Amino acid sequence: KDGHIIGGPFYYIEKGMGEKWKWLAKIFAFFGVCVGLMGIGTFTQINGITSAVKNFFDPEEKVTVNILGQQTSVAVMIAGIALTVCIALVLIGGLKRISAVAEKIVPFMAILYVGTVLILILTDLNKLPDAFVQIFEGAFGIRAMAGGMLGTIIASMRSGIARGIFSNEAGLGSAPIAAAAAVTDYPAEQGLISMLGTFIDTIIVCSMTGLSIIMTGSWNVGLEGVSVTNRAFTEGLPFPSRVASFILMLCLVFFASTTILGWDYYSERCLEYLVGDKPKVIRAYRWIYIFCVFIGPYMTVSFVWTLADIFNGLMAIPNIIGLLTLSGVCAKETKRYFDVIHSEPKISRGKKMS
Questions:
Q1: Between these two residues, 105 and 172, which has the higher pLDDT value?
Q2: What sections of 141-240 are H helices per DSSP?
Q3: Which of 303, 283, 252 minimizes the C-alpha distance to 43?
Q4: Rounded to whole angstroms, how far apart are CA atoms 67 and 55?
Q5: Which of 60, 186, 190, 322 is the most exposed place for a label (fewest CB within 10 A)?
Q6: Dist. CA 93–CA 294, nearest whole Å
Q7: Whole-model pTM?
């Protein structure tokens, strides 16, 4: 009644599949909160940011402090505190402030990152054909068949699917929470816009990153996390290594910060579905979320990614059940939309959709 919008998989499971499936909607919402607090939303993002900052300012960890029983670079500590304060200032301002910050950062970071990787690829364009050869040989060659026979194909699929979900969140159920706030005459229209995000994120941005890593040989030198991409940038860009590391650090700060802000919104809506309209509970959750951002830098990369993969999978399962069950509704809605746009004059359609 007050114009406050909440929507997402928990509602299309409950309303689309029926009240008897409300328990499944609650499971989705519960794991949505968990993913926000301990998965994509906080730990992995702040961990990646502080790792990039450490690689730039203190790669050899010469200046360290003891935190939680382990030696941590001072650069990590300072970056973690600074990012936590900035995130807190935005989140406390609510949804409007989150939107205002994100709409300014996202276009800039996308252009900067894509432009940088294009420079890397064009600088060593002669290595591009060999990179594609390595990709296809790895996927369909003798080594791939041997790996399949040995059972490693299962591990490859697990890793690939996990990283794919982490990249574009397709099937996870997070994007519909944001899409639910859109104003449109046709749900299918918003669905097509959401699909475009997956294409840009994975087919363009991630493919370019993968090519840069393969072209520079950074994928098989024993590195993990952001260090792999950092080596690709320092080896492949026609800039001094410090400049290349700084560009990656800047891009990662922007990418990860907006993801942290976005997942606060997603997980708050999941919590609101579970507890109802209780502003005090939401505010308390927001402070817990900020605390998770604060402690994220001091966790190991392997632990952070394992935790994120577990909760991603648990969140995706109820959503995928809902998608499969309601696929007929989606198909019908999509057909109706295309029938309308092919039959209506463009001018009247534009007025109606606006």
A1: 172
A2: 142-149, 152-168, 175-179, 187-198, 207-215, 226-236
A3: 303
A4: 19
A5: 60
A6: 18
A7: 0.82
